[in-house]
Task: inverse folding
């Protein structure tokens, strides 16, 4: 297990390194000059050079990238701003805020969105899939399967607005999506995010229902289930002690992928519900040509995806003893 | 641009020329039937599959015939009817008639503020979206197949290298990358601050979606080829001195049509929604070019006042994606009846 984790984490770091380098070099492929944009209306050559120096973009590109990497591990010094401590992702070009701090400010929103939605879609999705598998071919199975198909064909940028129109504006059952820190007011945290959670669950549930159903149907026809039943174990205990274990593997895998997507940039979700997470931060960084911010968000998002996958593989092995980590 | 549904047709058509399609062949069973013919028979028996195929074909037909339908209907998606004619929009820019201004003249109503005709805008929007998604699917499939087969067949260092590239591509936060690098791609062709022509926007979208889309199909095909490579018939071909090209095209490829077809049917609706999502975020196709995502983005600006405008693009997209997903399932069931969903 330990060796597996070390190997995967090293692999993940290499991937992150490549992703950040690609982002960095691609950004400079855009023919535009962030220094000139930051310099403002009255701008002469001397001032421009000064701005360049302050932004840290006076050096050649590979040197800049090296400085950026150094900043993450040992911090770096900026002329005029001073020292920036160890996980340093630089300062925003547009508002000079530290990138790391801004991302950390925004991250709780994105995480709340992701984990809250996951809580709902796991319970509903796996629950519906189990019911469908047990009641195979009956009315309940058909209802669950058709609803999951319908849900998976929906898009957040449409259902989100429809839900806001009918549930918030017309019926007034839910409140307009907003983010209040959990530590401040748990009630407001839930009520503000309930609508996005529900809408995300409608869309994400489908996969889990279908997957759980097909996996369980397969597992329940396996020999070990028949053996256990023949030994006199009840249907219920066979189901909850053995069958679900075998069925969970692929579900854990898609869960990892979905969590990666949700953590790494629920961009459309956040813009639909006007939530200030890292997705909307990324959109703003792009429109403002804010390289440090864009780099920071990309790397954090990619890290979310990569590490979600590692955790999933580890959990996979814990659930299913047949899988050996090598 | 042919709909992917007809991709199944060549299988069936060529088979028909080879063997006589005797009406009672199902009962006799003495004649040999090709896999393509069998799949077609299975598909025809699947009612959901046939209905969803009809819906999908309907969407492609209206997309292709959009100019014809629009000229019969007598309107176009660019004219600002609401501003040119009085009595359509009120002072605030919202349709005077209820339900978004639906009446005999404007079947789906009028767009608030600008006053365009919703029906033709949607028709042309579907046309744009389907064109981009279909082109992307074709490119992704071709590139994915070529790279996947190369990696699987050559193995060794090539396989390792391609495998790592695929790993990296799949860990990219893709939406984030799309919004970040659409400007880069535009910048390659147009000087900054210049107007970007719509055709260039569409081309760039197709390129970027393709660049990030081929990895999953390549990975799948690589796995399939790895399994096939060790089979006796490939060994036999090698022993008889067949060239690698012959082995790939004559021995491997015929066995790969099923996964290729299934994957591309599942990919197309995904690209439709991805393209619309980018337009929604304002980095894909932009107003005034009609597009599914542009319509939803416009609708989002005034959904609190006039939800009707948003209903049409939204619901039609759900119907299309649902029908296409069901079709994908049916194609899989027909081609590969052993597989479980």
Result:
């Amino acid at each position: 297990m330990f060796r597996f984790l070390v190997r995967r984490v090293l692999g993940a770091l290499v991937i992150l390194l490549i992703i950040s380098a690609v982002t960095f070099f691609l950004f400079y492929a855009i023919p535009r000059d962030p220094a000139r944009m930051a310099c403002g209306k009255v701008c002469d050559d001397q001032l421009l050079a000064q701005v360049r120096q302050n932004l840290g973009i006076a050096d050649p590109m590979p040197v800049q990238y090296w400085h950026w990497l150094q900043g993450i591990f040992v911090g770096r010094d900026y002329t005029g701003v001073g020292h920036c401590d160890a996980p340093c992702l630089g300062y925003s070009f547009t508002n000079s805020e530290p990138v790391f701090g801004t991302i950390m400010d925004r991250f709780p929103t994105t995480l709340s969105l992701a984990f809250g939605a996951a809580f709902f879609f796991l319970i509903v999705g796996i629950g519906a899939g189990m019911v469908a598998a047990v009641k195979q071919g009956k009315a309940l199975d058909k209802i669950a399967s058709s609803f999951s198909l319908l849900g998976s064909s929906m898009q957040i940028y449409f259902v989100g607005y429809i839900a806001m129109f009918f549930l918030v504006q017309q019926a007034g059952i839910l409140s307009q999506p907003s983010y209040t820190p959990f530590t401040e007011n748990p009630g407001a945290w839930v009520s503000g995010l309930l609508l996005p959670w529900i809408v995300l669950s409608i869309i994400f549930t489908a996969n889990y229902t279908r997957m759980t159903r097909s996996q369980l149907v397969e597992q329940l026809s396996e020999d070990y289930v028949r053996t256990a039943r023949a030994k006199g174990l009840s249907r219920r205990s066979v189901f909850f002690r053995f069958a679900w274990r075998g069925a969970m593997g692929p579900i854990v895998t898609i869960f990892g992928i979905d969590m990666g997507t949700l953590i790494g940039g629920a961009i459309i979700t956040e813009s639909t519900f006007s939530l200030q997470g890292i997705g909307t931060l990324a959109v703003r960084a792009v429109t403002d040509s804010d390289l440090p911010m864009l780099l920071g968000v990309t790397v954090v998002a990619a890290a979310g995806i990569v590490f979600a996958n590692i955790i999933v593989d580890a959990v996979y092995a814990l659930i299913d003893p047949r899988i050996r980590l090598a | 641009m042919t709909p992917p549904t007809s991709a199944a047709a060549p299988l069936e058509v060529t088979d028909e020329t080879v063997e006589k399609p005797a009406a009672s062949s199902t009962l006799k069973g003495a004649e040999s039937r090709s896999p393509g013919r069998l799949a077609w028979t299975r598909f025809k028996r699947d009612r959901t599959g046939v209905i969803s195929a009809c819906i999908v074909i309907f969407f492609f037909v209206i997309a292709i015939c959009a100019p014809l339908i629009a000229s019969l209907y007598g309107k176009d998606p660019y004219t600002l009817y609401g501003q040119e004619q009085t009595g359509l929009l009120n002072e605030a820019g919202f349709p005077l008639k209820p339900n978004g201004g639906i009446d005999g003249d404007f079947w789906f109503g009028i767009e608030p503020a600008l006053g365009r005709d919703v029906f033709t805008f949607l028709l042309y929007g579907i046309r744009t979206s389907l064109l981009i998604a279909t082109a992307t699917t074709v490119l992704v499939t071709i590139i994915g197949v070529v790279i996947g087969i190369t990696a699987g067949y050559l193995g060794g260092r090539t396989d390792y290298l391609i495998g790592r590239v695929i790993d990296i591509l799949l860990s990219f936060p893709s939406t984030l990358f799309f919004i970040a690098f659409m400007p880069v791609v535009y910048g390659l062709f147009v000087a900054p601050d210049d107007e970007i022509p719509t055709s260039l926007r569409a081309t760039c979208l197709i390129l970027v979606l393709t660049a990030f889309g081929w990895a999953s199909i390549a990975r799948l095909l690589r796995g399939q080829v790895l399994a096939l490579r060790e089979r006796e018939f490939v060994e036999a071909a090698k022993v008889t001195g067949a060239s690698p090209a012959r082995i790939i095209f004559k021995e491997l490829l015929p066995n790969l049509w099923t996964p290729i077809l299934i994957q591309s049917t599942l990919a197309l609706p995904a690209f439709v929604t991805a393209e619309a999502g980018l337009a929604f975020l304002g980095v894909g196709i932009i107003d005034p070019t009609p597009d599914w995502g542009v319509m939803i983005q416009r609708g989002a600006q005034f959904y609190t006042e006039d939800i009707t405008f948003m209903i049409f693009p939204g619901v039609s997209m759900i119907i299309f994606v649902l029908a296409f997903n069901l079709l994908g399932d049916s194609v899989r069931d027909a081609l590969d009846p052993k597989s479980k969903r």
